[in-house]
Design brief:
This protein is an alpha/beta fold and about 400 residues long. The protein folds into 2 domains: about 300 residues, Arginase, Chain A; about 70 residues, no CATH class. Helix content is about 30%, strand content about 20%. It is built from 11 helices and 14 strands. The strands form 2 sheets. Strands 1, 2, 3, 4, 5, 6, 7, 8, 9 and 10 form a 10-stranded mixed β-sheet that branches. A 4-stranded antiparallel β-sheet has the order 11-12-13-14. Helix 1 crosses helix 9 and helix 2 packs across helix 3. The chain is globular, with a radius of gyration of 21 Å.
């Protein structure tokens, strides 16, 4: 793929850095800015930043087209990490004549990066770009788990056109469908209709209220551990911490909490794409939101640098196995605990129709799920996954 056909590169001048030398030791000098005039071997990169200033399908947020460069200005002023990581900034995507053209380009570029084992970070733009991100997995005919950090479900109506607050239905209904699971973390009940809550339950999607997550933020880690793709709508962060968004409220995640979540996302061995959307620089105060998003990116990369690579269960000597008898279960509930990282998984059986064969799905969980089983209880998440996989 010739990336020069897709991107407008960023430079010190375009980012309004008058004295790049003053940024010595900062990320500006550690991230490779893509120069179309120079040959580029994308396989040399581990992470690729790509701005997508597409806003034609946004809901009352046209100025989020300005977000990518504002985020870069703050991110590149930060210091790096103790470990080396190869990051390339591809620049800003050239928008198509129609929004669908942009979606196709986003999907093609992300698919290309994933194939080359490069993790794209998408700087939006509107939240509808999560739909374009998902289409990269469709191009690869690859089943995917999606996680959205969002105050709203963004389900939308089946007959309505796609919009930044109405795109999830388009993912669910797209054929062929490669969506294995969808989870929303941080929704706020008063911002979602009872009908949409019921629809999410009917589809066996996972939904977690912001208050529940804030009480025990460590429970977010197993939820994002199995994700292929994670999107953050900055409206999930409370307005006092992120004023640069027209859709957030006085409640939501605190700044330090969303950074911790981003670190959990980066830690996920399986995650292959990550996007942040709906930031409007014209509403920001003293660069508060762009600085927070820059910190989110920083913590995401730090999480990536400390990946444990302990999701290969072929070598059972690397795990402790616990078989727990629970009332109502068809058989013992089996847990695995990594000796390397201390993380937990629980097996969910998948029964094949017209066959005695039983497959096993390794569901990431926490020690709390194991403790519940020891108390003769099975977590709601296990039952939801079991029902979804055996429907």
């Amino acid at each position: 793929m010739d990336l020069s056909l897709y991107f407008e590169p960023v430079t010190a001048e375009s980012l309004h850095f008058p004295d790049a030398a003053a940024l010595s030791g900062r990320l500006f000098h550690q991230v490779l800015l893509y120069d179309p005039a120079a040959p580029l071997d994308i396989s040399e990169a581990e992470i690729a930043i790509m701005g997508v200033p597409e806003t034609r399908n946004t809901y009352r947020n046209p100025s989020c087209s300005l977000a990518p460069d504002e985020i870069r200005r703050q991110f590149y002023q930060l210091y790096g990490w103790r470990k080396n990581v190869r990051i390339i900034d591809l620049g800003n995507l050239r928008l198509g004549n129609a929004v669908e053209d942009t979606y196709s380009a986003v999907a093609e570029v992300i698919s290309y990066l994933i194939e080359n084992k490069v993790i794209p970070i998408i700087l939006g733009g509107g939240n509808d770009l999560a739909f374009a991100n998902y289409r990269a997995y469709v191009l690869q005919e690859r089943v995917a788990n999606l996680v959205a950090i969002d105050s709203c479900f963004d389900l939308g109506d089946e007959a309505s056109p796609i919009r930044s607050d109405a795109y999830v239905n388009k993912i669910v209904l797209q054929q062929p469908n490669f969506l294995l699971n969808y989870a929303n973390i941080g929704y706020q009940s008063y911002m979602n209709s009872p009908e949409s809550v019921s629809m999410m339950e009917h589809l066996y999607f996972e939904t977690y209220r912001v208050g529940l997550m804030r009480r025990n933020l460590e429970e977010v880690e197993p939820l994002v551990r199995n994700a292929d793709m994670v999107s953050i709508d900055i409206s999930a962060v409370r307005r006092p911490d992120a004023p640069g968004c027209p859709h957030n409220s006085s409640n939501g995640f605190y700044g330090e909490e969303i950074c911790q979540i981003a670190k959990y996302v980066g830690l996920s061995d399986k995650l292959s794409s990550f996007g942040i959307y709906e930031y409007d620089p014209t509403l920001d105060f003293n660069n508060q939101t762009s600085q927070l998003i820059a910190h989110i990116l920083w913590y995401f990369v730090e999480g990536y640098l400390f990946r444990q690579n302990d999701t290969n269960f072929k070598n059972r000597d690397d795990y402790r196995q616990f078989n727990i008898s629970v009332s109502g279960a068809l058989e013992e509930v089996v847990f695995f605990n990594s000796k390397k990282s201390g993380r937990w998984w629980v097996l969910v059986p998948i029964y094949q129709k017209d066959s005695d064969l039983v497959k096993q799905y390794y569901l990431p969980c926490s020690k709390r799920d194991y403790d519940l089983a020891c108390e003769d209880k099975i977590s709601d998440r296990w039952w939801r996954t079991y029902n979804k996989l055996n429907q």
